[in-house]
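sry for the spam today, last one i promise. struct tokens for design, 275 residues
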């Protein structure tokens, strides 16, 4: 039986404040692909007061369509039989095709390698980094960590924030987006992210060599887990709901995760990915 000695916390301040000294490399998982102000992008910018170099596979797709570099345009035709000009990211089939092309050609990996290798000779002024990834496969964390540590980043400053939305809500919100993702991909992504996060907590000793910073669950169901008020120029976060599952430099202990948190996670993830 899990302990149930305290409620999860509603924070009125960001998880990470920019005033914190030192270099940080944040790995942000997106268990949700959603629309408007409850998406992982909005959550990461509004609820995590942290700035840095952002790596996001969605941005790679957008830039590829915008600039259409000659070499990659040629490869795209050869590998898919389509022209980049014909791709519409609002179409789930086209979006999946683009995602597969980026993955097959390791475009994201090449960008990461170039960036982190450039930090090797920069020991004292390393930029903050935000990795906007799903972590549906735990090997992705290993790849990122190995590159980050090669670039001189301390694994105790590699933090993981699991932005978790109710899967059923995420499915509904996805349908309202201008750029949709197939339900099958969303289902696999949610399952994979939930299993990865459980693995990181349940087998902490194994994975601390890759990421030994904080691990947070940031619940992201709009108007339930967070509330935002529209100001004159931007949204203001009134409150949001988060729980730190692991502290930097210390092991996680699955047995000590509050039952209330386990129940909340299980109410959000697909039935075959429960903690």
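last one done:
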């Amino acid at each position: 039986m899990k302990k149930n000695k305290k409620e999860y916390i509603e924070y009125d301040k960001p998880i990470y404040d920019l005033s914190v000294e030192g270099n940080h490399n944040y790995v942000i998982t997106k268990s949700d692909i959603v629309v408007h102000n409850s998406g992982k992008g909005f959550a990461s910018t509004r609820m995590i007061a942290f700035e840095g170099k952002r790596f996001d596979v969605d941005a790679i797709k957008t830039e590829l369509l915008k600039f259409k570099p000659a070499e990659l345009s040629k490869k795209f035709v050869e590998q898919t039989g389509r022209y980049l000009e014909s791709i519409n990211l609002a179409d789930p089939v086209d979006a999946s095709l683009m995602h597969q092309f980026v993955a097959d050609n390791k475009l994201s990996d090449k960008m990461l390698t170039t960036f982190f290798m450039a930090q090797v000779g920069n020991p004292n002024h390393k930029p903050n980094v935000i990795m906007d990834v799903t972590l549906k496969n735990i090997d992705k964390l290993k790849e990122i960590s190995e590159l980050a540590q090669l670039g001189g980043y301390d694994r105790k400053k590699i933090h993981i924030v699991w932005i978790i939305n109710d899967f059923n809500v995420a499915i509904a919100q996805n349908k309202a987006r201008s750029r949709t993702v197939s339900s099958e991909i969303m289902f696999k992504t949610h399952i994979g992210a939930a299993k990865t996060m459980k693995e990181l907590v349940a087998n902490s000793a194994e994975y601390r060599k890759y990421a030994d910073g904080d691990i947070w669950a940031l619940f992201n169901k709009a108007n339930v887990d967070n509330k935002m008020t529209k100001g004159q120029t931007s949204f203001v976060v009134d409150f949001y709901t988060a729980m730190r599952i692991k502290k930097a430099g210390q092991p996680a202990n699955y047995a000590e995760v509050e039952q209330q948190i386990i129940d909340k996670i299980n109410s959000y993830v697909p039935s075959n990915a429960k903690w």
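The first helix runs from residue 40 to 46. ok im logging off now
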